[in-house]
Amino acid sequence: MLYELIAIVRPGRLNEVKEIAKTAGSIVLARQGVVRGLTNWGTFLLPKPLRKHGTKHHAGHYFILRFDCSADAQHTVKRTLSLDPRMIRYSLVKMGRTLEDIKDVGGDANWGEGRKY
Questions:
Q1: What pLDDT is recorded for position 117?
Q2: Residue 21: CB partners within 8 Å, gap ≥ 6?
Q3: In the chain, where does DSSP find H-type helix?
Q4: Are 38 and 25 in contact (CB under 8 A)?
Q5: pLDDT at 28
Q6: Structure confidence at residue 109 (pLDDT)
Q7: How many Cα atoms occupy the beta-carbon half-sphere of 78 within 13 Å?
Q8: Can you give the pLDDT at residue 54?
Q9: Angstrom distance (rounded) from CA 81 to CA 65
Q10: Which positions ≥6 away from 9 have C-beta within 8 Å?
């Protein structure tokens, strides 16, 4: 199944963003998954201030990771990200189950890109 991970990491250190993306990608690859693409969106103000691990965040570093994997690997990625104190928030979305659903989905997730209905 194809998944899209949208992650917000505390801003300021690009190395932390790279480490988190590498960790998530390594989990997918170790469980016979495929990473389709990684897109760095950069730092943006959050829609509203978020409190995480006792710190109030007003901005975050966004990145998108698209990957194909089993449900077990997806749960491992979610569990690992939820325990990482550098993460502000993340969302994992299933983009499709069948080949027909995901055949036209690329690896890049550009800003403002969406499905045309």
A1: 34
A2: 7, 38, 63, 65
A3: 14-30, 71-83, 99-102
A4: yes
A5: 95
A6: 62
A7: 13
A8: 86
A9: 13
A10: 16, 17, 20, 60, 61, 63, 86, 87, 88
Q: Alpha-carbon distance 43 to 41, whole Å? A: 7
Residues present in the chain in total? 117
Three-state secondary-structure class, residue 48? strand
* pLDDT under 50: residue ranges of the chain: 114-117
Question: 17-53: buried (b, 16+ CB within 10 Å) or exposed (e) per residue?
Answer: beebbeebbebbeeeebebbebbebebeeeeeeeeee
Q: What is the pLDDT of residue 94?
A: 86
